Predict the 3D structure of the following.
Amino acid sequence: MTKTQKKEREERTRVSFEFFPPKTPEMEETLWKSIRRLEPLQPEFVSVTYGAGGSTRERTHQTVKRIHDETSLEPVAHLTCVGASKAEVDDVIRAYWDAGIRNIVALRGDMPELGAPYQAHPEGYQSTPELIEGIRKIADFNVIVSAYPEKHPESESIEADIELLRRKIDAGATRAITQFVFDTDQHVRFLEKAHAAGIDVPIVPGIMPTTNFKGTKRMAARCGASIPKWLDDYYIGLDDDLPTRKLIGAYVAAEQVNRLRSYGFDRFHFYTLNQADLTFAICHVLGLRPQTVPAEPEAV
């Protein structure tokens, strides 16, 4: 690859970041330090998660609104339909629109009880495509959805997941973000199958930095993501060695993104876990540099 080709690839690379709403004042301070650290990278957007069963509804709304009001970032609110009636969900959608939020990640959601089988609310939206249709009827939101290169744990097959994704797009979604996957070939195969099914919206790989590897393994078990043996081997004997785990995490994520770029992927979504330094370092390796953040307008 020539220097010109490398520069062009870096210039077209786009990133987005995911945060979760804080539970304590200390966690809120950490979150906002992370947001301010990553803001100069000028991501396409930043998303804020929604707890199982809608358990963080108010905190998600407050965090998204503060990002909208106090930063130059484009906030995206996660929204689930589990455990709530259509009327309750519609109230949340309208509140986001009234607060100036124009982007939603629409998800089915998980039950509050860990591992419990999904059961739709009797008066609620019965599926993600139905939720998307409901969102689009209320206002002209940009709707993002999830995708699962290694198959959703409750799905019958990858083909069933592809069909569900197609239905989400038909309902009005404009982009999909994948569950984190460490086997890059899974991303490539999933994209090929999606294209074969007529899905032509951007499918953005979700990237999970692996500093807390034990926590990553627990999350992977819940969402059906596999842990390659080579990755497991990297972390042997490092339970009490955080500095080395950070170095390995940055290396693994940067290598994965660079390989995905060689296949033509040019957008990446980082699950930051509200920790900025590792994500910032990976973005730096990818050629992204801090830009001047627009000054907030002075009060009149």
